[in-house]
TrEMBL record:
Heterodimer of an alpha and a beta chain. It comes from Zestomonas carbonaria. InterPro entries: Hist_DNA-bd (IPR000119), Histone-like_DNA-bd_CS (IPR020816), IHF-like_DNA-bd_dom_sf (IPR010992). GO terms for molecular function: DNA binding; identical protein binding; structural constituent of chromatin. Histone-like DNA-binding protein which is capable of wrapping DNA to stabilize it, and thus to prevent its denaturation under extreme environmental conditions. Belongs to the bacterial histone-like protein family. Keywords: DNA condensation, DNA-binding. SMART domains: BHL. This is DNA-binding protein HU-beta. Pfam families: Bac_DNA_binding (PF00216). One of its GO terms (biological process) is DNA replication initiation. GO terms for cellular component: cytosol; DnaA-HU complex; HU-DNA complex. The gene is hupB_3.
């Protein structure tokens, strides 16, 4: 499902115009992104939790030359599914 299909599904499910559903989806994703940038977790009970995880610096290899390279530390967004979502999928 892509963004347009998700907006259409939200529009039908919530009985909203597509434009309103699109703005709502954009607001939700923007708010979650902003919270993660601040270092906050976002928990939607039953659905899951969005968090930021730190990945340590490490050494890697260039696949073409085999030379060792340093890979910098990074912060990555992460999602952990809640029990209700896990049960729905299984």
């Amino acid at each position: 499902m892509n963004k347009a299909e998700l907006i259409e599904a939200i529009s039908i499910s919530a009985d909203l115009p597509k434009a309103t559903a699109g703005r709502t989806l954009d607001a939700i994703t923007s708010t979650i992104s902003s919270a993660l940038q601040k270092g906050d977790d976002v928990t939607l009970v039953g659905f899951g939790t969005f968090t930021v995880k730190a990945r340590a610096a490490r050494e890697g290899r260039n696949p073409q030359t085999g030379a060792a390279i340093k890979i910098a530390a990074a912060k990555l967004p992460s999602f952990r599914a809640g029990k209700t979502l896990k049960d729905a999928v299984n």
